[in-house]
Amino acid sequence: MSTLRVFFTRKKNSPPTFDLQFDGNHWGTVETSSEDIVFYEAVYVAKGSETSVCVAQTAPNQFPFISALQVRSLGSNMYSHVDAQFALFLKARVAYGANTTIRAPDDVYDRMWVPAAIGNGLNKVTSDALFIDVNVADDPPQAAVQNAITTSSTSEYIILGTKFLPTEGVSVYINLYFSEVSQLDSSQNRSFLLYIDNKPQSATIVPPYGSVSEFYISNMTASSNTSLSLVATNDSTLPPLINAMEVFLISDPLTDGTNSNDVEGLALLQTQFSVLQEWSGDPCLPASFTWDWVNCSTDATPRVTALYLNGFDISGPLPDFSSMDALQIIDLHNNSISGPIPDFLGKFPNLEQLNLADNGFSGTVPASLSQNKNLKLDVSGNPELCVSGNSCQTTTDGTSSVTGGRTTKKKNKLPVVLGSSIPSFVVFCSIVGAAAAWHHRRKTAAVASVSAGQAGGASKPNGTPHGGKTATQMVGKMVKAVINEIKDDTEEQITSEINNQIDEIAQNNAQQQDGNNA
Question: Looking at domain 260-403, which of 3.40.190.10, 3.80.10.10, 3.40.980.10, 3.90.850.10 is its CATH number?
């Protein structure tokens, strides 16, 4: 990486400390240095085709950053002595006797093997084997086992430092690598034991020449006070030696991450709305670092239960995120979301609140939302949306238009007349119309009964009695007469009210004029 990616808005006073996470799991606490390179390594079995790494701020004015990120694939059998439900966090990888750090191309997996400081009484030795077979489980590079350290006599032992471990006991995984540095004759023998806290913990170790033996310790509790030592056996003619060592912390059980259905839905939202793409990693885990605009359950596999996207300045239509079927709250108000309200919003089985206010939605509210009595729904502030109380008209192109939503107030000299007379006319007309229709149905039924009794002639199978007018025509005239009468009465009422208001205005003006004259 040629650039340094850092997130801060003002100068920092000291090297920052922050948390490191991967796939929603806590990795460690990074303590940076102004002088040394600090690196962290995790070994684990990926649960998918993607992985995420996050740096998380844990203290004010401590701004996390990352200089480089490297991902390497390992052999399927490597580090398999620990269950795949756990990760290994590197604490030390040492190549004893090496002069420089060893990595690719010497290590095909690009692991970093660091030279170890050699204490008093220890000697560096180099193998005289032309080739060293490193075909063991964790496949160390030949360069890492070409050298070794040993003591001067069998009465001395090698102490392996553990000061890099925490002061409190933690679960560790340790690999020790051994390779004989010279071809021994029949009178020579190198054998030793591993002691932990002054107690033997291994069978007899005899390093092979031209190849490597690996000894591992799994699921052991150790701390910075734990003592690891290599002690020669009583029959050994040569002192103990060691070529390389790896020490890992064993993580807590790895989480499976947020439910895949929720991850899928969030990915669709991020694809549709670019402003959301600055959030990455697991949306719910670790629990103290959930994304700002989601709420999550506390299940072992968390579910996203709420979306809070109010005021995010998102625009355009909504993508179908119906896979997020644990949602209880969806808050999308104060944005510029457009188009019809999607039907899928009415299919969330646990949805309790849906806020779509102050957007650009159009069309009608789906019945699955408007008729859901268990849902708190807010669709206010969408001027093109047809809601209850408005008149929705369907245009020829299949879209809906809205009338009665937002009306422009007009100046009117007769607010009382238009506000009271016209509604009462509509109500009255509706009542009379219903009465006329009822009368029409009764009259039609009676006439039909008489007509059936008086039908006759091949030319008149359903003839009109006495050759008179049909009942429908008669009722039509009756209804027309009633409506005309109502119309005349209404016009008379309106005219009377207008005249009354004009007289009242004239009187008020006269009184005001008299007052001015006085």
Answer: 3.80.10.10
